[in-house]
């Protein structure tokens, strides 16, 4: 299966930070397998990874931060 990738933004003078899969999972509080399910679910709204090498992928920190901000807030009573 060919993974659809989103283009990396052009250089703006501000360095784009990239997080690898394990760091993304830890940041989100998810297991690696749950992260894989989330990223392959087209309805999840999870950002597409970028290719870093032949077998390496990562996510732009700004994309992960936007994903977190888009999640509904939970209020505890």
Characterize the biggest β-sheet: 3 strands, antiparallel
Q: How many separate helices?
A: 3
Helix content: 25-40%
* Shape annotation: globular
Q: How many strands appear in the DSSP assignment?
A: 3
Q: What order do the helices and strands follow?
A: EHHEEH
Q: Which consecutive residue ranges, at least 5 long each, have pLDDT under 50?
A: none
Our measurement of the CA-to-CA distance between the termini, rounded to an integer number of angstroms, reads 44 Å
Strands side by side in the biggest sheet: 1-3-2
| Secondary-structure class | alpha+beta
Rounded to an integer, what's the Rg over CA atoms? 13 Å
Tell me what portion of residues adopts beta-strand conformation. 5-15%
Q: What number is the mean pLDDT?
A: 87
